Amino acid sequence: MSTTQAATNLSIGNVEIGFPVVQAALSGYSDWPMRVIAKRHGASYMICEVMLDKFLVELKERKRTSHFLHISDEEHPVGGQLMGSEPDSFAEGARKLVDAGFDIIDINFGCPVKKVLGKCRGGYHLGQPKIALEIVKKTRDTVPANIPVTVKMRRGIDDSQESRDHFFEILDGAFSLGVAGITVHGRTVKQKYIGPSKWDFLREVKRHVGEKVILGSGDLFTPESCFEMIQETGVDGVTVARGAIGNPWIFEQARAISEGRPKPNPPGLHRQRDVIKEHYQLAEEIYGERVGPMMRKFGIKYSALHPEHVEVRKAFTKVKDFSQWNAVLDKWYAEDLPGVFPDGRLHKAQGSCENG
Question: Which pLDDT does position 57 carry in this prediction?
Fold first, then answer.
């Protein structure tokens, strides 16, 4: 299969996505500024950071919390991801996401974080198919028919036969209840982020569902890996998670490859500098002037593309405000040196609630 064939346009329900390499939901990361940066670099669809159903139900319209549901016109289509434990509050939370303007509602049955599992959320539901499918039904019944509902899953709690049976019960049941697509991450919940993502399982799932939409997830840290997953498994698209943090260029590189053009070189330091500054300014626009400490995590991720990434990473960890952010840029990004491709191993060592 050629890369051009692999880049067949993606649709989720009645929503035309287009290019099948999209940005996954990332807890603590995929907020409005990150999504806008990704969109401007070629992402065709982005999903917001996962939100708790009860939080959304109780959320009041206040300036200090307005960023959670903030969407701009240039983002569309954009997905809202939801996580929780009770079917009724899940449905109420989904309604809040629809009212906010999200084009697709995504149900999280994949998060492997211990504190999430302990509260019967995320990947916990893969062990209780009846409750999982009740959540899907309540959500699908509540969300307007013109808004697609999707599901994010891991391949099971563990590798037991019971876990496998539960996975396929939820998979088949969710499609029968009207979900428009399902994203499958190739690790189990117990694996968290350790060990390889099982792409063979993704191939099996895609063959099992036929023409229904399956997106693949797991170990996507380069544009080449996105097309390798599509080619090897037959999935309809891929969701890039950790591989997109601090590296929005992965989307434009993937587009170049899909069009038969040479893979672009890593962005030079001046281009990196401009995007890093733009990201900070977008964050300041929505969060206010005290955004410095919150942006450190992004600076750390961007530093992976710098040839002196160890020292640049250290510098970003100390940033407290925009002047200090600019000081790092003035010192380390003054000369327009060639950038480097990020080392995927740096990302693989650090987990996030959504699974890249």
Answer: 76
Query: For residues 121 and 109, what is the distance between their CA atoms, to the nearest angstrom?
Result: 7
* Residue given tokens 């299969």 in the structure block: 1
DSSP string, 209-229: HTTS-EEEESS--SHHHHHHH
CATH number of the domain encompassing residue 180 = 3.20.20.70
Q: Is residue 178 part of a domain?
A: yes
299 and 186, same domain (yes or no): no
> Tokens standing for 232?
């090897």
Long-range contacts (CB closer than 8 Å, 24 or more residues apart) made by 197-205: 198/155, 199/229, 199/232, 199/233, 201/155, 202/229, 202/233, 202/235, 203/232, 203/233, 203/234, 205/171
Helix segments in 7-86, DSSP class H: 32-40, 53-58
pLDDT per residue as tens digits for the range 32-50 = 999 999 999 999 999 999 8
- Which of 111, 120, 226, 353 is catalytic? The answer is 111
DSSP state of 48: P
State yes or no: is 111 an active-site residue.
yes
Sign of the CA dihedral running 197, 198, 199, 205: negative
Q: Are 253 and 323 in contact (CB under 8 A)?
A: no
- Cis before 77? omega within 30: yes
Tell which of 258, 283, 303 closes a domain.
Answer: 258
pTM score, whole prediction: 0.92
Q: 314 is in which domain, residue-wise?
A: 269-332
Q: What is the mean pLDDT of the chain?
A: 90
Question: What number is the average pLDDT over the span 249-253?
Answer: 97
Q: Is the CB of residue 29 less than 8 Å from the CB of residue 244? A: no
